[in-house]
Write a structure and sequence with these properties.
The chain is of the alpha/beta class. Helices cover 38% and strands 19% of the residues. It has one domain: NAD(P)-binding Rossmann-like Domain (Rossmann fold). It is built from 8 helices and 12 strands. The strands form 4 sheets. The protein has a 6-stranded parallel β-sheet, sandwiched between helices. The protein is globular, with a radius of gyration of 18 Å.
Amino acid sequence: MRVAVTGARGFIGRAVVDALHESGHTPVDLSLENGFDVRDEFTLYADACIHLAGVLGTHELFDTVHEAIDVNVHGTVNVLESCRAAGAGYVGITMPQVFPSIYTATKVCATRLATAYHHTHGLPVSHVRAFNAFGPGQAHGPDHPQKIVPTFAVEAWAGRPIPIWGDGTQSVDLIHTSDLAQMLVDAIDFSDDEIFDGGTGQSFTVNEIAEMVLDITGSSAGIEYLPMRRGETPTHIHASGAGWCELGWQPEFRYSQLVDTVVSYR
């Protein structure tokens, strides 16, 4: 099967391309690096599309609201229309509705749009609800959102205190990007607006993750607590297992994968 991947050169997109190859599919690279802009109308030459292209961020997107809507919402409409014209299936990536942020608003809208296309136009649709993805190669730096594992690892290796926004008692569900990618590929086989939980069901407090990173790096710099950022509130989330029975498997947290990821930022 030919499977288009928007955002194919991104952190999750690269893992999805690998998973498609391993599953015997032919990935089609739809990425900015390959001359593709999701904001433009396009013709899809594939049997299915895994839609990952988007602008990320929590507090960052309050400064670029119009761009976030243009890419994450209007871009999703372009993908849905292209899938509809090609008779192709659509797999979208969504998120738990945890933060009152611009990003959350755009992802909820994109998911509801896909559901609307499914019910009105009969478009084959499924969704993967991604929790806190991690793995080697996740971007870190001033031009990227500050994701938990790369942020903690980079600061710890540099001998600086790990920054925690809030008191650290909020919890997250870490899923390795290889598991999330496999779930996105497996979701191609579903078409009735199903939602699959891209998490492990195991939660860690942010303080616990910071302590693990300090232990892995051997850093003694400790933790620096900072005020919560715009669009963030203390949350306690973990996957409840939606869709795992249908898939026949569920992701698992593996400490060794966290070690490998932290070490990759040395």
